[in-house]
Amino acid sequence: MAASFTISGRLVDILGKQTAPVQVSVADGRIADITRLDDLPADAGFLSPGLIDAHVHIESSMLAPTEFARAAVVHGTVATVSDPHEIGNVLGVPGVHYMLDNAAESPLKFHFGAPSCVPATTFETAGATITVAEVETLLDDPRIGYLSEMMNFPGVLAGDPECLAKIAAAQQRGKPVDGHAPGLRGEQAAAYVAAGMTTDHECFTKEEALDKLAAGCKISIREGSAARNFDALYTLLAEHPGMVMLCSDDKHPDELSTGHIDALVRRAVAGGIEPFDALRAACLVPIEHYGMNVGRLRVGDPADLIEVTSLTEFRVRRTWIDGQLVAQDGRTLLPQSSPTAVNKFAATHVSPDDLRVAAQPGRKLQVIEALDGQLITNRLSVEPLVDEGAVLSDPARDVLKMVVVNRYRQAAPAVAFVKNFGLTSGAMASSVAHDSHNVIAVGASDDDLAAAINAVMDATGGLSAVSHATGDHWVLPLPVAGLMATGTCAEVGHAYQELDAAVKSWGSTLRAPYMTLSFMALLVIPALKLSDQGLFDGAAFEFTPLLA
């Protein structure tokens, strides 16, 4: 039976921009009554609707939905707008069903979408394809609330029939369409939004966001483990209330354990935003936009609410979902479950010789320049380091060899070079490589690269860090689709921190080296990226030679 109880505190009236001392009565999981009180103790908490992550890939936490929920409710998160695109690229529709079924074991309100771009492009090898017909079937499922991010914005602008058919399928069912158009401005942004996009979480400048807002698109301000756009965009919370949401997109377990959307509310308030404007984005706008069955702290609503210490400190004391107390004083009250391991992985070893790049006299390397806190990259032209006719990693100039290996069938590795990973020794590898999730690695030597790749292959998915110089050999297995572990957030977060510390001890200065690495294969975001088929020019949307 759903919970019944009463709680007193200062009710946060977000739209009215005021607070009031009240007693909230909950009966059978719903708000039964809200009664005004004359007085409250000085230490009484503030009662607010629960927080919502407006765009997140649960898989990027490396946790199954049930374990993600156990960690998130501690920070006041009661719901997420979740795109199962990552597991969709590995397992197809069965992967989406896996997420739906696992999430159903948790009270947290996961609002899943139908992946729109599986595979994301035709220039990489994914584990599955999700067709227009399959998207239509998913959209007919009442558990699917929207069409997930339409990453193929060039296809939309060019009138690609498959893209337009998926958008139309969502519109015909009255379900919103999420956008994904990094860097798109002006007339192109307006045309993209006019094609049916209702949100965008890829803005990395305020000017870009303003263009999309002017076209009628809502903006989700993203602050994840790799892409961090909050500082550039947060003033929109006050300037465009009702048109802005907050999201993480991709968040690793170590960071999820310390904060979620609550941390963004705190930062917004510290930056001069009224708490009511920050909470409108964090609580109300996602409910309104996606039609979520999440309470707004009104009589008759589901009792999805949080108690916080103050509207500036914003520390979450307690979290309720449908009247169930799910977190208290920094502790999750949700039980741990054991997610089933499902996967698609053809493990194949590579040798250092497989990674050899033959030099071409007179030609320079096209090098990917990774940018800390951004998914976009720059293109550099660099004189290669050559020894015995082969182009080598050059740690002295921080120009390191990067490799992508097909994880679905045996194929020759694709090799490129990247700057700003900073490794002076060792190598790191991962089967989390957006969006097709082949095995990606970067390292200071071919021997270390091959060893790191093979460690991931032996685990049939995971993260690794290997250095022959130091004797280190770290592996975090990810048996669920090569994307998620089966342990708790604390366990997975600790293992991840060991890997993170190792690669940073070898010289990496990136805030989140593994998350940054995972996006070096994301072809739909310029300028240069690497797929399992070769070096890719994201602006021209075509392959480009490594040596030119």
Largest sheet: 8 strands, mixed
The overall number of domains is 2
* CATH homology group of the largest domain: Metal-dependent hydrolases
What oligomerization state is this entry in?
A: single chain
**Rg calculated over all Cα atoms:** 23 Å
Distance between the termini: 68 Å
Briefly say what this structure is.
With 548 residues, the chain is α/β, with parallel strands linked by helices. Helix content is 26%, strand content 27%.
What can you see in these coordinates?
With 548 residues, the chain is an alpha/beta fold. It has two domains: 51-294, Metal-dependent hydrolases (TIM Barrel), CATH 3.20.20.140; 352-543, no CATH class. It has 16 helices and 29 strands. The strands form six sheets. An eight-stranded mixed beta sheet has the order 3-2-1-4-13-14-15-16, covered by helices on one side. It has an eight-stranded mixed beta sheet with strand order 18-17-22-21-24-23-25-26, sandwiched between helices. Strand 10 (199-200), helix 8 (206-214) and strand 11 (218-222) form a beta-alpha-beta unit. Helix 12 runs antiparallel to helix 13.
